[in-house]
Specification:
Elements (H helix, E strand, L loop, with lengths): L17 E3 L2 E3 L4 E5 L6 E6 L3 H20 L2 H17 L1 H12 L3 H22 L5 E3 L7 E8 L2 E5 L7 H12 L3 E5 L6 H12 L7 E3 L5 H10 L3 E7 L2 H12 L4 E5 L4 E5 L5 H13 L9 E7 L3 H12 L20 H16 L3 E4 L15 E4 L6 H4 L6 E7 L2 H9 L3 E2 L1 E5 L3 H10 L4 E4 L14 E2 L2 E2 L12 E8 L4
Helix pairs in contact: 1-7, 2-4, 2-6, 3-4, 4-5, 7-8, 9-10
This protein binds adenosine-5'-diphosphate (ADP).
The site of adenosine-5'-diphosphate (ADP) has 15 residues, from helix 7 and helix 8.
């Protein structure tokens, strides 16, 4: 029975079983989900395996004909109900996300709005999926192109945005008339299961959206990339896993969308408004404690403004407040796990051993707990250091200096990655020159927050294939079919 006005508490949105064909499936094998702020066990979740994955794919396949037969408007109406249910339950969803992921509740609520915005966006796009009429060379023929949903889709998503990384894949898939199987991250499956609960409550039909939580990513990924009924895989995660999945999907020539790692430059030129540069860098860097793939990884500052910029930056960083996600007025919470702390610490040790200077932070905030890391600023970084080549994924600003515009651009592009890039400048000609030369899929100019449903999110080079959001996002879930009609006299 569709009930699209329900308001839930965090408790009533806490599902711990897999969701397949409209049913909650308990499994004997379970895995634990921990609260990273406290280390306490939040839930024991059903551990989906290859068999359950196959069951989910079959359910998605069974649901496909009637879902695809709905008009775009009918699908849009259901998506809009889902959107509304997310907003109605924003607080409960945010509390649940904060508990399993660690980000401040206010930031989590922002992610719920952001995640929901993809659902509204693609509900709209569903109705604007135009084809083409072709000018034929044969007077006895007419030809046109239609767009059709690819079929059963699979999504594999990461833990840093437990809601939005799912909605930005599921919404366009469902809008296009596809059905879906999602394998959410082992660390944050609860937000995914809550989304499925709301989808079910608003009347999205059984089998259209299936969730297979699992600690056995490799096994589930193997089925999703090899099963003949799956036509498309959308993945967000690390570059190494993305490459592996692309190879696996090649065997049956599945369409793939990949949103992989980044190594975003954030360039501060000598004509930049330095106060604006500092606020935008902070917004970009400390969101989710630096655990985002579009986080500024390399901060490149032109020599002439380095001392002044560094001073302003340190002043701003000293104001940041760290704490558990359920505490009001904090800027960021714990990192996701011990491995994340170890990685940040290792990159810092490597950089300082090679001559970088720690200006502030650089340590675990033991009084808060083992996963809280101090806001950190490091200067004198060079391109050779691991911290310039790997994703830091933590609250560390690594500053490197450069002398002129060309050197800034060269350093920025000196990476196999090309997801986001940022720069701050005032001169309009420079803004045009640099915008056109930076190698990335998304660019923020005097702007550190660039994620919106209307933007085309995605990378170039080894950062990925395809775009999410925007008017291009729907096409990732569609095939283009040309129809030629002859015999016209
Ligand atoms: P992150 O560092 O963000 O966790 P990963 O690429 O390891 O990045 O994880 C992103 C998603 O990919 C998660 O849902 C994870 O479970 C999944 N994953 C990891 N390894 C594999 C694999 N071999 N096959 C399929 N999925 C995988």
């Amino acid at each position: 029975m569709a009930n699209h006005n329900s308001h839930h508490s965090m408790r009533s949105l806490l599902q711990t079983n897999a969701f397949v064909d409209g049913h909650w499936i308990p499994l004997e094998q379970r895995f634990q989900v921990l609260n990273p702020a406290t280390g306490e066990v939040l839930a024991d979740v059903a551990d989906g395996d290859a068999t359950l994955t196959e069951r989910a794919i079959d359910a998605a396949h069974k649901a496909l004909p009637s879902w695809r037969a709905k008009t775009p408007k009918q699908r849009a109406e259901l998506l809009l109900r889902w959107y509304q249910a997310m907003l109605d339950n924003k607080q409960a969803l945010a509390e649940l996300m904060s508990a399993e992921q660690g980000k401040p509740i206010a930031e989590a609520a922002g992610e719920i709005e952001y995640g929901a915005s993809f659902v509204a966006w693609f509900a709209g796009e569903a109705e604007r999926s135009y084809g083409d009429v072709l000018p034929t060379q044969n007077s006895g023929q007419r030809a046109w192109i239609i767009k059709q949903g690819v079929g059963v889709c699979a999504a594999i998503t990461p833990w840093n945005f437990p809601n939005a990384m799912i909605t930005r894949k599921v919404a366009p898939a469902l809008a296009a008339g596809c059905t879906m199987v999602v394998k959410p991250p082992q660390l944050t499956p609860l937000s995914a299961l809550a989304l499925a609960q709301l989808a079910s409550e608003v009347g999205i039909p059984d089998g259209v959206l299936n969730i297979v939580p699992s600690s056995q990513a490799k096994e589930v990924g193997q089925v999703l990339t090899s099963h003949p009924l799956v036509r498309k895989l959308s993945f967000t995660g690390s570059t190494n896993v993305g490459k592996l999945l692309m190879q696996q999907a090649a065997e049956s020539v599945k369409k793939v969308s990949l949103e992989l790692g980044g190594n975003a430059p954030f360039i501060v030129f000598d004509d930049a408004d330095l106060d604006l540069a500092v606020t935008q860098l902070l917004a970009c860097k400390f969101r989710n404690a630096g655990q985002t793939c579009i986080s500024a990884n390399r901060v490149l500052v032109q020599d002439a403004v380095l001392p002044k910029f560094t001073e302003k930056l340190q002043q701003a960083v000293s104001q940041l407040k760290v704490g558990p996600g359920d505490q009001a007025d904090i800027d960021y919470g714990p990192l996701i796990n011990q491995a994340a702390i170890d990685k940040v610490q290792k990159l810092l040790n490597d950089a300082t051993a090679a001559g970088a200077k720690l200006l502030t932070g650089g340590k675990v905030l033991d009084n808060l707990g083992p996963l809280f890391f101090a806001p950190t600023v490091l200067s004198g970084v060079t391109s050779m250091m691991a911290i310039s080549q790997e994703e830091i994924f933590g609250p560390v600003i690594a500053i490197q200096s450069f002398t002129d515009e060309n050197e800034g651009i060269r350093l920025a592009n000196d990476t196999p990655f090309g997801l986001a890039g940022y720069f701050c400048a005032s001169d309009y000609a420079r803004i045009i020159r640099v915008s056109e030369q930076l190698e990335c899929g998304m660019l923020g100019v005097n702007a550190g927050a660039i994620s919106h449903a209307y933007n085309a999110f995605g990378g170039i080079k080894e950062s990925g294939i395809g775009r999410e959001g925007s008017r291009y996002g729907l096409a990732e879930y569609q095939e283009t079919k040309t129809i030629t009609l002859g015999g016209i006299k």
